[in-house]
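Moderator note: this is an archived Q&A kept for reference. The question asked for a predicted structure of one protein chain; the sequence and the answer are reproduced below.
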Amino acid sequence: MFSDESKFSLQSDSRRTLIWRAPGTRYHQENTIETYRYGGAGWIVWGGIILGSRTDLHAQNLTMTGHIYRDVILEQHCRLFRGARGAEFLFMDDNARPHRTNIVDECLQLENITRMDWPAYSPNLNPIKHVLDIFGRRIAACQPPPTCLPELRRSLLDEWCNIPQDQIDNLMLSMPGRCKLAVKSSLSKSGILPSNQIGTLIKNKVTVTTKTKNTVFTGI
């Protein structure tokens, strides 16, 4: 399972709004809009994807903490998929501080959930990132747009369910090819792939064979 969190706000913090204006009218009221540094009120959402399925979307208006991550994300979502998939279940999350607390590690051990090693600095290969990009575009296209937090939450829950499963599956099935391209690109630029990325690729059975000078790297 690949998982991640993202924030969706009622107000955009983007500074890329473009308009046509007459010279010298930059600061006229009709040419300015109020923005919020952190996007204003909104929801933090968490979701997970696997081939053929996805978790329910979890939405909260609180900062994610280790306790919430354990009690809600792991206990109410991941544990169910672990039970259904059995010992082959492999869980990926990033290195955010709430994900790496002692209580989270203890819960993973107790529930016998195997966590995928993930380097702190890695290529943008995680398919959940691309799913969240699709998700964000769907939310931005909502008409009429949500005007309050309950409407935004409803839109988030609906649009998460409306993402076609074949789009998610295609992103996950493209992982081996994208990993090979990342390895090739890294080796061509530096002559050697960082050891933490080699370890991640090998453990997740991405098969790559590349020759550089006197070095041959084969991941199986």
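Archived answer notes: The chain is about 40% helix and 15% strand.
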